[in-house]
Structure formats: structure tokens, C-alpha cells
Amino acid sequence: MTAEISKFIWVKQGALAAFAFLILFYNLIPVSLTPDDLPKPDLLYCVIAAIIVRRPQIAPFWLVVAIFLTLDIFLQRPLGAWTLCMLLALEAVRARRYFIRSQLFSYEWVVVLLIYLVALIVFRFILTVSLVAMPPLSADVISFFITVVLYPIIVFGLATLFGLRRPNTGKRGETQ
Amino acid sequence: MARRKDPEQDFAKSIRRILFGLTVFFLVLLYLFWRIDSPRAEQIRVSILDKVVPNMEWAMAPVTRVSRLIDDFQSYGRIYEQNQELRRELQQMKAWREAAVQLEQENARLLDLNKVKLPRKLSYLSGVILTDAGSPFSQSALINLGRRDGIVDGWAVMDGLGLTGRIAGLSEKSSRVLFLTDSTSRVPVTLKPSNQRAILTGDSSLLPSLEFIENTDLVRPGDRIVTSGDGGVFPSGLLVGQVVLASDNRLRARLSADYKRLTFVRIVRHTPQPEIATPDQLINPRLPNGIIVEQDESPSE
User: Is residue A43 part of a domain?
Assistant: First the structure.
């Protein structure tokens, strides 16, 4: 049984990596070279957090690091800082997954996005302390609110498209 | 919590914990390295992009093409209005052309009188934009010219009309163009009729602000902005844009370069003028050779 699961897990991890690549690709296409009118939401965090709450094996921490570090390199962000914030934030989600599963969805929504907000603040704090030029704060604020709105939609989408649901609380031992 | 105590699982868990700690440590180190030795870290980044991005071009091209096609289709809808507008503009242009011809003749006469020595014509290299920077951290793009094409860091980049940015970051086959809209971009400019100096300061918006203007009363919205050539990075006299008064009551620049439709860019080949290190040489008669280093004299500069 476990062997069967671990065989499929590679496929699912691959799918997650492919999704991250798609996002990177979308960002790199030189369609408009003007500064963005509407800041982009953090789709990747939503997807990975939703996965970690439901099936943490699909997004092990090394995959998270690989994905965010690649994005850091390609998107001209300060190397490592955002990856570090995201890694710690997603580990925080992972540590709380049993408790989150036992609560209502609205609780999950609040916790996951509060952790994201903390990560965002820590990230800006690190950059401020080390005197790095940052994009304006308003962009981050707007992006955060769009992310908040997007999270339930993504969870719903993952559940309907890929059947990614919370494991039954009764079988906790089996599904980890 | 009904969780079994399995020694094998415990072992796996502690291994994972160690790896996790190492990863965090590595990320902190990476960030510190980036912060402390930024040029070298960026060099590494550019060399990675140089390996990967040209290989992705085959995939990028069709998507870009399709999205541009959709844009073009949308513009078909307004073709009649555009036609009318163009007719009107053409009418105005004819008047302007008449004025320009007269000015040209006048200019020719004045030049003849002055015998002004014009700087040698600047030459161009043309490149294609490969990718966008893709994040709000840097307004920049990667182009398909690099060190092997003779590009030098700092050269000015223009579209057909106005200044777009500068080369910042070079590798063998590609290089990065830092746009004027980037928040780290600073370009010394001159505001034309009043000859006020200013620094064009990017702030991630489409209208970079004009800082350090000596006397803002002399500057009007609509004034032309050209590079001043101070600092010797850019040649002087490249068109940048026009002064506008933004809604936050600051003087900003509307750039002449069209960032929305930037596909090809021109890189201005530019070697700075020899610096005048010892001004006394310009006045005194030349001393015998061997005492003073030979220097290029250009009376017009």
C-alpha cells in the first residue's frame, strides 16, 4: 500500500513542479514591459499551502526550496530571502496541519493567510534592515488582499479538479 | 494523538530535521552572500539565465506572438476612428513639416556661420528582447546581445525614438537592460528650453520623477527632456521624453520610448570623451614632449 502511494507521489510532485514552472513562464513572457497595473497574487503559496494541509507528502520541504529558489533566480528577486520566508511559513502550516484539519475551513483560511502575512512582514523587514530597494508597499498590500480572496477558490479548484480533499480525521494514522 | 513510536521513523525524522536546518542555514548564507557581494551574485545569476533563457525562446515565441495578435485584433475594432484621427494628424503634420523645412534652412545657414564641429555620429547595434524580468523588483528585460557582440556595461539602450534604459549585467550571449522605470535607475538629464539639470529617478511607475531641479519655476510641463551626458555614461542629447505634472504635484517624465510595444531595441555604441584632467593645458602653450601627456583637444566641448 505504501509502495503504491509513493509511486504516485513522484507524479504529483512532478505536477506541482510543472505548475510552478508554468507560473514562472507566465511571468517571464515579454508581453507587457510596463510596470504592472494590478499586482499579481501569490498563487504558488496558496496552492502549496492547500496541498500541505491536505497531502503534505506532495510538497516536501526540498521541493518547496527548489521551486522558490528557482523563482528567486529567474525573477530578479533578492536571492534566498523570499525562499527562506516561504520555507518557514510553509513549515509552520505543516506543523499545524492536524489541528487545521480538525477545524472548519474558515479557520484554515485565516491561519494560512495570517502565516503568509507574517512571512510578508518578515521579508520586508529583512530587506529594510539590509537596505535593499523594495517595490512600493501598496503593491504588496493589494497583492495580499487578492491572495486572501483567491485562497478558497484555489482550494475549491484543487478539490474538484484533482480530488484533493482533507483526509478523514478517523484515518489520521494512515494518511499521515 | 495516536502515533506510533517507531525507531525507524524517529531516525528518518531526525535526518529530516538536520537537512531542514542545513537548508535554512544555506538560504541565510545565500542571502548574505547576495547582499554583501551583489555584483558577483548577479554575475552568477546572469550566467544561469544565459544558459537557460535562450533555450526557452522556442516556447516563448508563439505565446508572445498570440497575445500580441489578440492585441492587434482589438485595435481593428477602432480602425475607422483611427483613420479619421490619422487624417487630422496628417493635416497638422504638413504644417509642421513646412516649419521644419524653414528651420532646417535657417539652421544650415547658422551652422555655416558658426563652423560648429558636431560630434561624430553615434552608431547602433540592434537586439531583440528575450524575456521580461517578471517581478516588481526590477523593471528590466533580457536581450539577445552579449559580450561576444561587443556590448559593454552601461551603454544606453533606445527604442526607435527615445531612451529606454541601460545595459546592466552582461554575459556571453545575453545581457540585461535596466529600464528607466526601475527603482534603481538614475539618469542625469537636461530639460530643454530652460536648460535646467535634473536626475531622472525611476520608481516602478510608468512616469519616472525628476529630482534635484535647481529652479522648478523655469520648468513647464511639455518641456523636452534629453540626456545631459554628465557622468560620461550616456552620450548627451538622447531624447528621453517630456515633462508632465503628475497628480501628486511632482514633475515627472512621460517617456518617449513605448514600453508596451518594445520588441527591438537599439544599443548606442558610445565611448566617453577623453576627460580633461589638467585644465591648464587648454590655456598655456604646449610644453615640449615628454613633460605633458598628449591630449585630444576639442574646442567645441
Answer: no
